[in-house]
Amino acid sequence: MKRLLAVGYWLLLRKQNPISHTSMKKKCFCALALALALPATLLTAQQPDTVVLAGVVISATKAPVASSALTQSVTVITGEELRARGVTTVAEALRGVPGVALASNGSFGSLTSLFLRGGESRYTKFLIDGVPVNAVGGYFDLSHLTTDNLERIEIVRGPAGAVHGADAVSGVVQIFTRGGAGPARVAADIRGGTYGTLDAGLGLSGGGDALGFSLHGARHSTDGILAFNNDYLNENVSGSLKLRPDAATTISLATRGTHAEFHYPTDFAGNVVDSNTYTDQRRLTVSLDAKRRIRTGIEFEILGGVNHVREFSDDVTPGASGDTRDRYTSLNRRQRAEARLALASGAGRLTTGVEYQRERERSASAAGPADGELADYSNFAGLRTTRAAYTEYLATVRRVALTLGGRLDDPSDFERAGTYRAGAAVRLFEGSSLRGSLSTAYNAPAFYHLLDTDFTTGNPDLSPERSRNAEIGLKQELLAGLLSLSATYFDQQFEDLIEYVPGGPPDYVGTYANLRAATSRGFELELTTAARGGWWGSASLTLLKARVAALQPGYQGGARVGDELLRRPRRTGSAGVNWTGWNGASATVVARYVGKRPDFDFRSFPSARVTVPAATVVDLAASLPVLRGGRTPVALTLRVDNLFDKEYQEVFNFETPGRRILVGGRIEAWLR
User: Fold this and answer.
1) For 507, what's the count of Cα atoms within 13 Å in the CB-facing half-sphere?
2) Out of 79, 276, 366, 561, which residue is the most buried by the measure of CB atoms under 10 Å away?
3) pTM across the whole model
4) Which CATH number covers residue 631?
């Protein structure tokens, strides 16, 4: 029976179901880091401590683009804004972004999936300083990614395959490590409170025209929300180094290392049943970006990066004949190198380049006596290399900004995939602009889709999953620039979705096939106010219809044409008010609404389809300076999550945190 349960759990992991858990173990991990923090924009609650270029976006195209010239939807969140709000995780930072829906398995550190514009959880590409960090097949668990030493987050909504290749089916989320500028300084913060929470960080940064650097370490821990076996620990080190040996050359390095350990008593259905299961993950991401201006209008750039993830889970089960141990381990490695040449003139900017990527995954499941040697009962290994070439053209002709790009990816283990993007942004008149775009993307099959495992037969004839998107947006300033309103309509189609096909007797070994299609259509509305008298605010609303569009012969699942896609709410929204007052004191109140969404009750077989109710959650943050001026300013901080102690769920039958109050302080010291 245990072996059967282990096989079922393995299948849940391999299908990367949002309710499964990643595999990890406790060991101390640390990384020394050097990295580039690229410029960003947005109103912040306090004075930025790094040099920023207003209105520049990096992730939407191959070249930095002014936000006014973007042809698709992009949201930028600055690190200063997040620090003012006391937000410590990227998942929390993304809540409230238009088009974003998150599903977490409950407590702090539990598996967290992102659904962008109605796409699957494996359809958003995540990058850290330009390095892809998704697992093979596209899935990424946000639970251990923190905002420590973060300069900004860029969220690109809509397919971005022409820019980023595989996995950017519904969009891209990229985080940038903070750089350093000005006199060297040390900054420290600490806070604690409900659920035994303790957060602490220490950083050093500084720099000038020729050199900029940052180095930061942080530790986050909590007892969790459940009665037992729910501890969580996150330790991370990150940093950046930016060199300018001469006026024509820039070399940037970045790294981020994380060790996370999560104890969870819940099974795959949310039942609290286990007193000793835990997971452990260690991730190291390193990036390089070297640019040289050959002559006016000609620039050559080399980029490279590695992302290594080692994780495992461990579970001991008592028995009449002795305790037994089950352990799952995995190692994922991704390396990439890219070279690009950019030609700029009065006619626009043409960028062309080539990219090479190598992905490797190994995993093993083992069982045996708790105090003895374990025997493997499942092993898996996969290797993929991908060569790609791309071209992108950006131009501005009077009031019109144009984007045109194409890319061809040639993977070693499935068919070639071509993607494109075409868009335009038109400034109609002062304070009013219209934009539209057509774009495509693809998602690569995972190794377990293509290769034989102990539990499935691989299908090497699989096609990549594909998407097409059309969107149009209007932005209008009102009341002499006091208000800014934007509205976007998008229509996205997903084709060749990969589905599991159950096997028959005698061994019941299943396989995978391209068997489903889906559509996702909706509106995104955003309203922001300019700062007046220390006050400003923002609000957003997303209306979404994500449904099954077609089922191919051979489909054996429970979905029907017209069904809503799981865990994608029809309506989401947020509203926030910010205040900065006397002596630099600040306060922020944010309310987030998530409408009802379909899910499954996995406590029974076959699993019944259920509806998770809608919920509104309010968060509060405040900062009060107690020492100002001089070289060591000090501030007291307050953060209240779920202010009104709302009971709600994001995944059916998994509890979420109630009210959490965190009190702390922040101090800075300039070194001269």
Assistant:
1) 7
2) 79
3) 0.90
4) 2.40.170.20
